[in-house]
Task: structure prediction
Amino acid sequence: MTVVEVSVAGSPRRGVLSRLVSRLGGGAVQVGLALVALFWLVPVLGLLVASLREESANTASGWWTVLTAPAELTLTNYADLVHNSTVLRSFLNTVYIAVPATVLVVVIAALAAYGLAWIEFPGRLWLTTLVVGLLVLPVQVALIPGAKLFGALGLFGTITGVVLFHVAFGLPFAIFLLRNFFAGIPRDLVEAARMDGAREWVVLRRVVLPIAKPAIASLTIFQFLWVWNDLLVALVFADQDSAPITVALRAQLRQFGTNIDLLSTGAFLSMVVPLAVFLLFQRYFVQGVLAGSTK
Amino acid sequence: MTVAKAGRFAVDPTPGRSPRQAVPFLLPALVLLAALVLYPLVYSLVRSFFDRSGSAFVGFGNYVDLFTDARTLTAFKNNVIWVVVAPAVVTGLGLVLAVLTERIRWATAFRLVLFMPMAISLFASGIIFRLVYEEDPNQGVVNAVAVGVHDLFSAPSPYAGARPRDAVAFAPAEGGFTSTSTYEPGSAVPVPLVGFPPGQVASEASAATQPRAGARELRGVVWLDVSVGGRAGALDAGERGLPGLAVEALREGRVVGRATTGDDGRFTFPDLGDGRYALRLAATNFALPFRGLTWLGPSLITPVIISSWIWIMTGFAITFIAAGLSAIPRDALEAARVDGATEWQVFRRVTVPLLSPVLLVVFVTLVINVLKVFELVFVIAPGSVQEEANVLALQMWQVSFNTGGDQGVGSALAVVLFLLVAPAMLFNVRRFRRERS
Result:
């Protein structure tokens, strides 16, 4: 109501000229933002087109020349990629690393978050504070000791080692996010279930988790993409046989100019999954990223 | 009992019944955190005081090494550049774009496009930008645009790469190829050139002929001394003049006349006074074409990598700030507009102050992110310039696992990184404690 009154009172003050200026300004804003969006799209488009051209075409002329010669586009590079056992294996490794690392983080963090939010025990506040403190801890502090530890346990160079490390460093944020969400669930719901004699883990499963679905979804997507996109952790802890696609492609970087066909197709192979997740679950993804941005 | 408890924990829900029940819920998380996060943290701290092999205690020796090692100092310097430039640019850009997107109908699509880089790996983004900045204008789009714009304003040299056949008679010097001997008016000077593909000579070029000079003039011919069976330095049949080439007459090092060759390659300096003159073929004739900038070279590499980080993080800033923007009461903005404030004044005096807490959170988040930058430098900087592009997170990996193999210094670097983010940890803990009370 007030808004309507204000805008009615506001508009007669503006003269024809100022309205014209603001309309032109509006047009300029549209054009400017369209240019910005183009700036964001062109780099990705460039890599995509490069991945669809043969190596000889890529070294002879820029990818933008397909605008005049679209016949150059070919799927040869992707066909080659399908026969490249190193890349295929590393792609599967990425799946084998990302899926368990995500499931484990969600399960373990949900348990811990419930414990911190709904069970009283001495040191509860202290423990929660610790989790908050660990939120921004850089992984670098654990690379050397982690390598030593995994070496002693025989896990160095294995997928299990990479997964465990990802799980440990994914936990602080996961626990923090879920604890905050769990703590916001109405007390009556939890208490009512307890009155009915439900055990704690039944309360978690039947009452808390169904309500917390959005938070679980955001966390799952964030953690999955985080692990999927990782390079550093796998670079340290994985060996040739357990390397994910980022590490496998990294070996081709040295001759960038001549390897562009392999690098661009490989990069797109690794991007397909994140982009699909992003487009399908935009809302949860954005929420997860905003919540986990300090990681 | 329940009421009393609820009173004590005003914010938190009523806790469960028995402390012992917490154990199975917390144990898996605690074991993992203790083994792979807390123990390593302490281990790194202790390890940083021991030498390369870990057997001898060296006190602060590794830290002294850090601050005296040229590579690490470059990394420090670059981290400072990153922290000073990158988060501020992204926060500012995010603010402006968030405010502007409020005025367009396709705001959702716009934010979707700008947020997309957050989904893909830093590794893939690195490859994307390595291609964008490739030096060859036939591969990198930035240099292709740079060359296009450059050639629009100054035409490329007509005879790039061409040179005199006789490097003694016409020696390369500043400003072009200058003749070593001098000539009096009345002479005719032959200037044979090589090093230029005959197929690229302009079509209007005609056969070169030997000029004959009048008393007060200096003449000459510039031709492409390349033909099948032709003699070096002689005008043979089928050898064509090079039209449009700039020639200068010098007297005691100063330019006293300029001429341009005609279709048959001849040039004339009329009305020269008595004396001896040197001839110079201007450098502009032969300059190699502009090929763009070496973006991935040592001097530009850090700005280039920062630009890719800006591309990745701006979507995050926009989305975060837009969320804060939608929480600003519309009344405040409208009231300012009714009072006659321009859009700029509304932005500067109302929007920005109301948003400042959100902007601070975005800025701090970006600073933490910047301190951990690793993949982008690793992928975008070619091996030969990684030293110039180095940052602490990359140097830590290099020293510990790659070429260095010194885990003492590596641990010290990890501790330094930890100390750099420690203020953010305290900030988070304080905020958490405050929100509880």
In short: Chain A has 15 helices and no strands.
